[in-house]
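Please check this protein record:
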Amino acid sequence: QRDRREHDHQDHRCTRGDVFWSKIPTAVPFDKVNHSLYNAFCQPFDEGIFVDTNYEVDTRNGTFILTSNFAAEAEIKQGLGTAMYSRIGACIAFDDLPVEARQTIAQRHFDEVYGCLDSDAKAAIDSTDIGAWLQANAERYDNMRIMRTKIDRAIFGHLTDRLLSAQKPNDEQE
């Protein structure tokens, strides 16, 4: 019987069970991890293996993407500590998207939602300035998930209001 630490390097299969290591990068919000768990990352980072009581995983061909809200490398070093910081291969700063990119994302999502509407709903949306307003105000959104939610709410909110107002009795509409 093979030792638990011995791996079949051909197919990256763990020797215990039928667990396979994915070659898909894994994103970890590293500044949110409890500091007491950092030791669990040392073995995969240093030796290319992760072993616990239930699993043995070959991480040599894995890519770890450690996301965080740190603004600078000095802040990362201070927040994680020198030992963990020394295991990070590269730091990539992410800047806010330019306005043009935000407008493109807003337009694509608007078009995606609009494309799912029936002709009556499209006509109702066409009678508004929702699309133009989104383009003019895309710079206000630095979080694309929030922007997508706002687009959904603008479109479906308008359609819901229209539907509800059409269902009111005539004497309530006046």
Observations:
- The longest helix spans residues 144-167.
